[in-house]
């Protein structure tokens, strides 16, 4: 069993993924953490020193590396992972993968990102108004990819425990 969580930045993929993995007693992997460990640099350093194209290449490589592992896991992707390098096709080519889009409203994302922008190079320099505009447009563009997931959960107004219960039901 390989559960892959996707969705926009700050939608809660890692918190939910970690909780769900604990419940299922399988390992949890955060793709950004995995990339940072492998590259021995933070995501911000990779963007700054090597650029986004290099980051997307490595992201694609490490996603495939993880999906080729035999054991079960819950994997949370980066917000952009589904939108580059045919990564949604990579997911669907693995029969044992169930992908879930964790859908969040623009308002929730902007509120959260205002407090946690600094480690996210795509939005780190945006002030609140510019951030709202950016997220609205970006989320619209990215939804084309996110909507290709096997399942979707709308997160707004739900507690982490409720979402974990929803995941159990969907994936049972
Ligand atoms: C990105 C999202 C980030 C990280 C990188 C690029 C994106 O992951 O992969 O900063 O393109 O949306 P999170 O979704 O975990 O913030």
UniProtKB/TrEMBL annotation:
ATP binds at residues 10-15, 120. It is an enzyme of class 2 (transferase). It comes from the Bacteria. It catalyses: shikimate + ATP = 3-phosphoshikimate + ADP + H(+). One of its GO terms (molecular function) is kinase activity. Keywords: Amino-acid biosynthesis, Aromatic amino acid biosynthesis, ATP-binding, Cytoplasm, Kinase, Magnesium, Metal-binding, Nucleotide-binding, Transferase. CDD domains: SK (cd00464). Binds 1 Mg(2+) ion per subunit. Catalyzes the specific phosphorylation of the 3-hydroxyl group of shikimic acid using ATP as a cosubstrate. Monomer. This is Shikimate kinase. The lineage of its organism: Bacteria, Pseudomonadati, Bacteroidota, Flavobacteriia, Flavobacteriales.
